[in-house]
Amino acid sequence: MRRALSFLTPIGGATRPSGSALLWFPVVGALLGLALGGIWLGSAKVWNAPVAAAVVVAADLGLTGLLHLDGLADAADGLLPHLPRGRRLAVMAEPGVGAFGVGVVGAVLLLRFGALAALRPGWLLLGGLWCASRTWMAVAARTLPYVRPEGGLASAFREGPGRPVVVAAVGLAGSLAMILVWRPAAGAASLASATLAAVGVLVLARRRVGGFTGDVLGASGMVGETVGLLVAAARW
Predict the structure, then answer these.
(1) Widest Cα–Cα separation across the chain
(2) Is residue 146 helix, strand or coil?
(3) Which of 1, 4, 108, 229 makes the best surface tag, with the fewest CB within 10 Å?
């Protein structure tokens, strides 16, 4: 649990990731989502909907240490332009952010803000989506090849017992339980859309760089959550 917290949040101190930490990814994701849901509910009592939505977006960045946002920017710069496969990995490793990264990060933050502003505060919605996003990160880390030959932080997830089937079962059960209690039809559509979006990022990475990196995992989570929020905010 501490290793999962340390990787996914600024909490827990510096620890080396391991395959056993993946078993706790859905739990940490659910806790993050529920905490953000509580912040959303509290903010909505103090400010109007747009300000409360902005507070939640900012709180999410703080609680994740901007890790996934950084991954989204790097993955966009590496996966979206027309580049040779080897060059893609080099671009993703560069410290700077290019036009693709800036554009995608800006669009994702705006879409998250707009969706939250259009919704009534629902802590179970965020708990379900955030649990699902970390579930697919964990499953991808054990089922896709890791593509940096020199190694990297996320390569440690290949070590030890990862049990992707157990992680997927636990994460999916927890996500469904929370999101269906929130709203059955809209929740199911939101979760399904979030899953398809997250998997879509992973498939793109598999085709363009041959597998995953830590940046790819973060990007899949951010994109999945955002699409899930957009679907939840539709006029049902």
Answers:
(1) 51
(2) strand
(3) 1
- Residue 135 has phi, psi (to 5 degrees) of -65, -45
Which pTM was predicted?
A: 0.91
Residues 171 and 25: beta-carbon distance below 8 Å: yes
Three-state SS at 233: coil
At residue 120, φ and ψ (nearest 5 deg) are -80, 140
Distances in whole angstroms, Cα of residue 216 to Cα of each of 19, 20, 43, 86, 194: 17, 20, 31, 15, 16
3-state secondary structure of 161: coil
CA distance 2 to 5: 5
H helices then E strands: how many in the chain?
10, 0
**Which CA distances in Å does 112 have to 35, 152, 157?**
17, 29, 29
Identify whether the C-beta of residue 194 lies closer than 8 Å to the C-beta of residue 132: yes
Number of domains observed in the structure of the chain: 1
Range of the domain at 221: 2-232
Q: How many residues are recorded in the chain?
A: 236
pLDDT tens by residue, 177-199: 999 999 999 999 999 999 999 99
pLDDT in tens, 80-98: 998 888 789 889 888 888 9
